[in-house]
Amino acid sequence: MANAHNQHSRTFQEFLIEAEYIVQTLSSNLCKVQTVYISSGEVNPDIINTLFRGIHTLKGISAVSGFPRITALSHKFEDLLDCLRFGRIQLTSCVMDTLFEVMDILLGLLKNINEQGVECIEIGYIVNKIDGILNDIAPPVNVSSEDLACIAPALLNRLSEHEIHRLYERIKKGWTTYSITISLQVDSIDEDVEMLQGNLTQFGEIITFIPISGFSADTGLSFDIIFVSDEADVESRIYSILKANIISVKKIGSLASVIESKKQQLSFLGIMPGRGSADRYVRGITKTVRVDIGRLDALLNIVGEALLLHGTVSGALQGLKARQGCNLSFLDINKGSRELYKKLSLLRDGLIELRMVPVDYMFDRLSRAAKRLSGELSKEVAIEFSGGDTKLDKSMTEELADPLMHIIRNAVDHGIECEKIRLERGKPAAGTIKVMASQKERGILIEVEDDGGGIDINKIYDVALGKGLIKRGEQIDDKRLIGFIFQPGFSTNKTVNDVSGRGIGLDVVAKNIAHLSGMIDVDTRSEKGTKFRITLPLTLLIVRALIVSESGREFAIPFNSISENLILRDSNIKKIGGREVIDVRGNFIPLIRLKDILRFAGNGAMEGGAGKKDKRYVVVIGVAEKRAGIVVDKIKGQREVLIKPLGRLLCNVSCVSGFAEIDAKKILPVLDPLKIII
Questions:
Q1: What is the pLDDT of residues 148-182, one digit of tens each?
Q2: Contact residues for 588 (Cβ-Cβ < 8 A; gap 6+)
Q3: How far is Cα 73 from Cα 66, in angstroms, rounded to an integer?
Q4: For the chain, how far is it from start to end, CA to CA, in angstroms?
Q5: In this structure, what are the phi and psi dihedrals at residue 579, rounded to the nearest 5 degrees?
Q6: Residue 591: how many CB atoms within 10 A of its CB?
Q7: Which three-class secondary structure state does DSSP give residue 199?
Q8: What is the pLDDT of residues 554-597, one digit of tens each?
Q9: DSSP string, 550-612
Q10: Nearest CA to 658 among 648, 649, 670?
Q11: What one-character-per-residue DSSP string does 362-413 give?
């Protein structure tokens, strides 16, 4: 199989792309099923149908691609979903855990295929577990004609087995059935159906859509909607929603008339496309393609170089203007140059957007982990997410998952108090962890906040003192003390368990966030809770940089690592432990001089003597939880740059991550804040 993987790597990569997307969607929908069931006590049939379609597709493509374990496990998953659809099993915690466990194993199998070309994880255990659940299912309920006597036979003939089951379950509970005939315009049918579903499902359930044959430019397409509800005044609410689209609303009872003969001649085509309900409507051609991210990188690199060439042309034009003035030819070329820049910028932004994925699928995994962990620690914890539609570069989302997982584990274990202490403090018995994502200028902000007991500063001080990180009696602010929690091996837990105590959790957070060129800040209040703020760039490919000069040399500093710029005077500089620092709103930040770390000669202006400058600038940079100030002579402005990596001969250059080409083929070193600070 490994050889086959090498020979058909393109085919397997296409399978992996499709399969990964399906599994991520399945996992997200499982979380929705669980949420709905907890709130209403019922299984949402639309989401179950969506799950069924997804796993059926995965079963098909895995069988064709030659992966029998994924195929077999998908088939068992289908059996489990089928029983849920027909109410033969209840969505107990055991069933829900089993469904999520299948997702974990499917992801593991996909990783096996990606890394080794074969399926390595054994599935016998989980298959037997599913079989055990299926062996205990209740016998199927036979729905007799008497049970559905109130429904006209012509209507029943148009319903699938699952739709009859859903209708029977609702009638058994005393719900009323309605037949709603509507007409929709073809050019807006998708949006209209989605709107109808969103409104009608607020006070009932749509069993199915039945198309009515015939079409005219005036009336559009007509449908019968079979709708059930247990609420009063349903007809008036339906009329208020459908308005001009409605033809008739009929309450289906024991005396329901047979549907018109022209409707009886129709074959059932299925529900029209809409959110969560496209199970039997088939489009001939999909409008979605999946592209390897490496190809996007190559295109983005070409666009970046085209923008650099434009900068060269623009510089040459300005030189031409200075020599020959603004004649008609110059104005035409200059106008074309500006338009070209706009188009290239749009192309670049479009390519970057293609790399972006919403972070909500990552939230689903975090939710499952938090619930599992709270169960292990016997703590009741609710986790809330917001901003799941915020997008981040695909290559960065996987790197971000581990830091967020460690922060949540830390919040559950260290932050959230036990039920007894929470009640004594006047808090709800269940703790709450909020994970919020939002757009922030050219990056995103992710916040993880808990309502626990906060970080114990005194305990951190004692541990830091014991490890020799500080000296007894040393003046140290809370900000620096909190920074110690990111040190390797630092833990306030005296005992080691399966969750914490080794001091590696937040150390991993700091390292991963630093590699993503992000910054992390911590706010905490005793007995109120703790908030972690993570700031990340949208992408690491094309970055906005601050152009600075020091001792006659120019450098580019990635803008996403800069927190602020300050004017520096000698009177602001202090020394602590022989190191230069500057006081920034009560926090002492170390100063760094580029000529020292890059070992180039100063021009004399920075050093003592009559030529000494009193006014300079400090660029405050941050990596993860660390901060530092870079001393520079001038700040020349901002530019978007495409960072070219260091070649083999220059890979050991200290504190430089690459080079950026700007106007007139000028090449600037791009400073690496991670190497500078650490």
A1: 555 555 565 666 666 666 676 677 677 777 777 77
A2: 477, 574, 576, 581, 582
A3: 14
A4: 44
A5: -115, 140
A6: 19
A7: helix
A8: 888 888 788 888 888 877 888 877 788 888 887 888 888 888 88
A9: ETTEEEEEEGGGEEEEEEEEGGGEEEETTEEEEEETTEEEEEEEHHHHTT----SSSSSSTT-
A10: 670
A11: HHHHHHHHHHHHHHHTT--EEEEEE-TT-EEEHHHHHHHHHHHHHHHHHIII
Q: What is the 3-state secondary structure (H, E, C) of 517-564?
A: CCEEEEEEECCCEEEEEEEEECCCCEEEEEEEEECCEEEEEEHHHEEE
Match 């058994």 to its residue by tokens: 172
Residues in the chain: 678
Tokens representing residue 654 in the block: 């200290």
- Band (78; pLDDT cuts 50, 70, 90): confident
What's the rounded mean pLDDT across residues 248-276? 40
- C-beta atoms surrounding 121 within 10 Å: 17
CB-based contact 515:675 (threshold 8 Å):
no
213: amino acid identity, one letter: S
Q: How far is CA 574 from CA 92, 395, 550, 564, 577, in A?
A: 64, 41, 21, 19, 10
- Considering the chain, what is the average pLDDT of its residues? 75
* Helix intervals (H) in 234-292: 234-242, 261-264
What burial class does residue 312 get, using C-beta atoms within 10 Å of its C-beta: 0-12 exposed, 13-18 middle, 19+ buried?
middle
Those residues whose C-beta lies under 8 Å from the C-beta of residue 647, and which sit 6 or more positions away, are none
Q: What is the mean pLDDT of residues 596-600?
A: 79
User: Facing residues of 381 across strands?
Assistant: 431
Of 142, 122, 107, nearest to 26 by C-alpha is: 107
- Quote the Cα angle for 197-203-209, to 5°: 35
CA 458/CA 460 separation, integer angstroms: 5
Measured CA to CA, the distance from residue 600 to residue 551 in angstroms comes to 9
Identity at 639, one-letter amino acid code? R
User: CB of 248 within 8 A of CB of 235?
Assistant: no
Two structure tokens written together for 546: 């601050």
Identity (one letter) of the amino acid at 549?
S
Cα distances (Å, whole numbers) of residue 470 to 54, 61, 180, 334, 461 = 56, 59, 75, 61, 8
Cα separation, 502 vs 519, in Å, equals 24
Q: What's the pLDDT at 448?
A: 92
pLDDT level of residue 504 (50, 70, 90 thresholds): low
DSSP count for the chain of H helices, then E strands: 21, 22
Are 655 and 595 within 8 A, CB to CB?
A: no
Residue 449 confidence (pLDDT) = 92
Closest CA to 105 of 6, 46, 19: 19
d(CA 89, CA 137) in angstroms, rounded, equals 6
Lowest mean pLDDT among 423-427, 556-560, 592-596, 602-606: 602-606
Angle between helices 124-135 and 93-116 (to 10 degrees): 150
The tokens 């074959």 sit on which residue?
Answer: 267
Give me the amino acid identity at 246: I
Structure tokens at 677: 């600070």
Distance CA 122, CA 125 (A): 7
Provide the phi-psi class of 10: left if phi over 0, else alpha when psi is between -120 and 50, else beta. Answer: alpha
SS3 395: helix
What tokens does 502 get?
Answer: 């080794």
Residue 98 near residue 132, CB atoms below 8 Å: no
Strands (DSSP E) along 140-203, which ranges? 176-184
